[in-house]
Amino acid sequence: MAEFGNPQLVLAEFTRAHPARRAARRLLGTGPVVGGCWAVALVTGRAWTWPVPVMARIMPGVALVAIIVLLAVAALSVPYLSAARAGTAGCIGIVVLDTAMIICVIVADPAVTWAAVLAVAASAGRLAFSARCCVLSWASRLSGG
To answer: How many CB atoms lie within 10 A of CB 35?
Structure first.
């Protein structure tokens, strides 16, 4: 204890430095930009005219809200395991949501617009970052950190 200090302070530093927590903060910061790209792509592509079932229109929004909650818990949570688990789950959710958006938009509207290319590129970048963070978070859990 004399060498490391108060256990609560040590745990707080581990929590602050956890890869999932850092990833959650970055994803929350970049989320509005990527969301804006998708909004422009869907509006300019006239998404309301696409032959997509109602549930397929609602589910991405519901998933997005759940992912934002997970990322917020990871970014703000004090307990180490809560931050780690919520951050990892949020990163996995972003990977799934971005992949689904890219695939669904390409299938629903094969006409490629500049806005769709921009949104796909933004999502692809976030997807690569999220996948990397999931791996780092998982490696951290396996090593006991």
So the answer is: 15
